[in-house]
Amino acid sequence: MRKRNALYVQSGGVTAVINATACGVIETARRHRTHIGKIFAGHNGILGVLNEELIDTGKESIAAIRALRHTPGGAFGSARYKLKGLEESKLEYQRLIEVFRAHDIGYFFYNGGNDSQDTAHKVSLLGRELGYPITCIGIPKTVDNDLPHTDTCPGFGSVAKYVATSIREAAFDVASMAETSTKVFILEVMGRHAGWIAAATGLASDTPGAAPHIILFPEITFDEDAFLAKVKATVAKHGHCVVAASEGLKNKSGAFLAESGGRDAFGHAQLGGVAPTLATLVKERLGLKYHWAVADYLQRSARHIASKTDVEQAYAVGKTAVERAVKGDNAIMVSIVRKSDKPYRWTIGTAPLAKVANVERKMPRNFITRDGYHITAACRRYLQPLIGGEDYPPFKDGLPSYVKLKKVAVTKRLAESFRGKP
Amino acid sequence: MRKRNALYVQSGGVTAVINATACGVIETARRHRTHIGKIFAGHNGILGVLNEELIDTGKESIAAIRALRHTPGGAFGSARYKLKGLEESKLEYQRLIEVFRAHDIGYFFYNGGNDSQDTAHKVSLLGRELGYPITCIGIPKTVDNDLPHTDTCPGFGSVAKYVATSIREAAFDVASMAETSTKVFILEVMGRHAGWIAAATGLASDTPGAAPHIILFPEITFDEDAFLAKVKATVAKHGHCVVAASEGLKNKSGAFLAESGGRDAFGHAQLGGVAPTLATLVKERLGLKYHWAVADYLQRSARHIASKTDVEQAYAVGKTAVERAVKGDNAIMVSIVRKSDKPYRWTIGTAPLAKVANVERKMPRNFITRDGYHITAACRRYLQPLIGGEDYPPFKDGLPSYVKLKKVAVTKRLAESFRGKP
Prior knowledge:
Chain A contains 13 helices and 13 strands. Chain A is of the alpha/beta class.
């Protein structure tokens, strides 16, 4: 069997642990020298592949690759760049195969969300069609936790741990000051379409009365009066009220609350997030003192408080992707399979890319309480193990010590640069 | 010598380590039984004392008091409640002495910022005047780091570590996506009047080109054109730009940027923070894609990423306050004295309350670079040791395990409730 080169590409929004997957891929590929020659990475994701901008990971030291395991962000650069259908984006798919051919790439590992699994699938189809056999393995990654056929998505567990920890800590602060200061605190978290991250804040509420008292999900239409009544009742009962709000919260007409636009005469929809919008409501209609926070990128890059389970799964999907590829599997996504809830036991499985591509996994309605403001026991049972364990990065001079790679470019072999969109 | 009771009171905005000070006070007082009888705490700060709402810390277990060392917020409740001059707030000061007398309180430990040191000072004066001898010890606490006569204020080091860690992590995220996504990221941090916290983000920038690229201090008047030019140049050079902005940023007319009000026709000044205001500028005038985060209470409650140095100092000031009190010191604030920068060596000292009260410590101009957008080597030398070391809380089920006290009320002894303001 002839050795062929491998290409690893990061895609879409990065996470605290996507580099742990990169570490798993590269360390494992380095141990399979009979099958795999060089290990390349795409510079800034699939864009780099289209532009024949490849990085030679062989120039990185063992220690640097090891340090990826504890470094957030995307070490090789990622891209928000979606390839469409085979017909619509034909030039791009052909160019990918052209680049693969020029660099003798036999293994393509695409590490991303829904779109990436779809792209990996299409590449495998086109490779066959063009007579260029290529092993395509999708590796899941997304803080949104919305991929099907996997127990969870690497990246999600660490965001979940961050938001649950943060809301618990802020709630201790608010509770101690509520008598004379802030009565309502609102934390805005990510989740444009699904409430998985908002749900995770509910893990902090492990005793009666513990924050968050209210969770606002994108799945549940925002009802201003009901929300304000709930805030008022919570303050009456506990002296304060802590709210977790999903950025994807929508009003009755289906518009994003943060972009409802009624408040800013200049139409600066992006100025307000959901949290300040809700805070203004609380102030105007209840007259209560408030504070709000928007975690934004902090939540998905907080490697210092990553879930150990998440880090281990992120590494494992990378490792298994390579092992499956050299064993001859193709057109699959590696996945996480739950064996039991408590104690949490899991293993790595696979799902055909054809079944994963473009399918979105929604949060089950029975994960949200009937009143729409909290999580159920079933949800807690699902989420709890995903935040399990700590995996602190090394610190130097009081700060986490993260690696920056050398990113040595591979010499281009194609005469022409890509004439498509990028 | 007759045993007398002690009263410990938390004041003002709480921090990630004010309870470590409470732990230091209570554990140490429990070891001085020849001098100190019961150890009370004020429920919700000085308000609780005025209302004769005292907590008997003797009802808390050894383990619960120990757990205060790793629990954020104010375990006994804190208050934003300022006592004014002795004449203006005479009723209140007299009431304090009345409550002290009713509960045989001979030691008053007031844990707070500027106002609290002033109050502690006035109580000591009035006690003498009214023939009720009371030992008053001020214990520093404030994330603002604005108390004089101390190297730093417990609470600040942990916020500093949090903001520097967070901006470094977010910067790794932004750098990896900048090619196709966010080019400018803005993190808003606390600091209404002084830029100490904003300055601390600069610690993350320990190599050339490392984020934050721009720090906006309340000490430097915001110049829109200069700021935008700097953002543009940074994006041109590094592909992205990470900004730390102090909430106290002011424009040329001296108005807070977040409340400049020019953008919202309905006058909702609180809707926008500094970060979204700056982000809108970046979008409108440079056309660059942005993201922003507002850390708000998350930064001052993030016990999970507390500075070990800060925790140790917070405990030490509590411990020393008690030791000095039983030795006969009075009307002093315990302080932190720096012996050397590198290695950082410190000890606990004292300063007369009369000298501390109402004096604000400003950030020296030579801590900010000449262009006004970053910190100098002198600033770095001062700040660096304050974030040193990690001191993780215990975790349970994936989340930090914090203590909630029983807070058993002391039986009231005064016939009348307070007739003053509270």
